Amino acid sequence: MQDTNNKIFSLDSKRLEALSNDKDDMALCYGHFNLIHPGHLRYLRHAKTLANKLIVAIVSDKDLAKNTKEHYFHEKERAESIANIQCVDNVVILNNLFLERLVEALKPKVLVLGREFEDKQPKRISLAIDLMKSWGEVVFYAGETHYATSDLLHDNVFDIEKNNRNKFNKVCQKYDITLKKLQNRLDNFSNTKLLVIGDTIVDHYVACDAIGMSAEAPVLVVKELENREFIGGAAIVASHVRSLGSSCHYISVVGEDSQSSIVDETLRSQGIKVDLFSDPTRPTTYKTRYMVENQKLFRVTRIKDHKISKNIEQEIIDRLTILAPDIDGIMISDFVYGVITQNILDTISNLSSQFNIKLYGDLQCSSQVGDVSRFHGFDLITPTEKESRIALRDNESGIEWIANTLMDHTNSKNMLIKLGSDGFIAYGNTKSSLERQNFPALTVNPVDVTGAGDSLFAAMSVAISSGANLMEASIIGACMASLAVREVGNIPIEMNRLSSYIDTVLHD
């Protein structure tokens, strides 16, 4: 373990003079770094590539208190968090001086600032930029947009997961979340009544054996070994809700085909109340995935994604109106296949206001275009980073700006930005500030990521409806998702499995 204290100093330190005399090229970054999340890591790692040494200047407690109402950690804690990042060589706490003084003393090769400073700069930042133009370069960088991780190239699975669990437990300690508190939340799941509405999918997995390449063309030849069907889309969300002990009612549109019967029989056998509206023009969405061991080769989708008819839309609205007085929350699982029309969405919002129903929204657009900003005033929305950027038409700004802007646009009480193998960042609007926390992925080498977001969405919605706060719900949801990606196919996670896994994680 490196001694991070040797990497940290303040502007009045004699060590600053020694650093000033260092002949190595330096890149200088600046910020308050109250919560370190993957967006910051992208930013810092890029800065490190621009010079031999990376120096990070952090705003002092005194200056931070003047400019923000949110809760912030002590400057020493923030400095230690930055110093623990391997690519950072030194951390400077800006106690009594300003950034331009540090720039003047160090004369770095490059000053790297967040993209938020490119168009509008406070006076002190502007002065630092003007100084840099005399001898160096100023780079505005928000953190490279990517949706995968390269961590496995640098470390083994065991060490990465161990490190992530340590981070996870520190989050629990930070918010005073104990196993007993979480167990109490789980015990309340059975008192919750939820309605799930959205697009139904049947997932078809075909296990294959790779034979080789075709002699006639460069085509991979496989032999089918076994196949299996799973309910998916909004249907698996309902299945997760019920398996966690909550009452669940499911509304969707399906085709007049055998796949709709599979969905209906499966959900009813689990004790879920079902309203499936048949539309002969829209066969039940059917996704076939061909796999060799746990590697997916490709997917074939049978789908019609035009909007549902006005008659079916009205039937759904009528049914929602009847059910609304007796439910605690409505979960919308929108795959942008035509079920969640604007009229249905408006009806749900009106019913929420009338009967004090919590609203949860998950919009998925991995292979189609959707807009999560349609969900206004929800208690929770759960977009991926990509979906958030699509909604804002912004592929350049940092994650923090994206999250804050999307929360403002949607007026959401809580939001997750899902980052794939980097976990997710939870954001919550409180009366006085915006609360945020990064949760690392507990399983870093998943068997099948299909349905990870569905399980996370289900667990968090049930938890919040049962009285959990955002951070408690996030811990429960992260554990749920970790279990979901450990096996092939969408399989509902039972309460006893989740409870046992949470126990294991918190006792590591």
Structural commentary:
- With 508 residues, the protein is an alpha/beta fold.
- The chain has two domains: 4-144, HUPs (Rossmann fold, 3-Layer(aba) Sandwich); 155-199 and 233-274 and 310-507, Ribokinase (UDP-N-acetylmuramoyl-L-alanine:D-glutamate ligase, 3-Layer(aba) Sandwich), CATH 3.40.1190.20.
- 37% of the residues lie in helices and 24% in strands.
- The protein is built from 17 helices and 19 strands.
- The chain has helices spanning 15-20, 38-48, 61-67, 75-83, 99-106, 123-132, 157-174, 179-187, 234-243, 258-269, 310-323, 342-355, 385-392, 399-410, 452-465, 470-484, 495-507; strands at 8-10, 26-31, 53-59, 90-94, 110-113, 137-140, 193-198, 200-213, 220-233, 247-254, 273-278, 285-292, 295-302, 329-334, 358-363, 380-381, 414-418, 424-429, 434-439.
- The strands form four sheets. It has a six-stranded parallel β-sheet with strand order 1-4-3-2-5-6, with helices on both faces.
- The longest helix is centred in the first third of the chain and has 18 residues, at 157-174.
- It starts with 7 loop residues before the first strand and ends with a helix.
What secondary-structure arrangement, pairings included, does this model have?
Blueprint lengths: L7 E3 L4 H6 L5 E6 L6 H11 L4 E7 L1 H7 L7 H9 L6 E5 L4 H8 L3 E4 L9 H10 L4 E4 L16 H18 L4 H9 L5 E6 L1 E14 L6 E14 H10 L3 E8 L3 H12 L3 E6 L6 E8 L2 E8 L7 H14 L5 E6 L7 H14 L2 E6 L16 E2 L3 H8 L6 H12 L3 E5 L5 E6 L4 E6 L12 H14 L4 H15 L10 H13 L1
Parallel strand pairs: 1-4, 2-3, 2-5, 3-4, 5-6, 7-10, 7-14, 8-12, 10-11, 14-15, 15-16
Antiparallel strand pairs: 8-9, 12-13, 17-18, 18-19
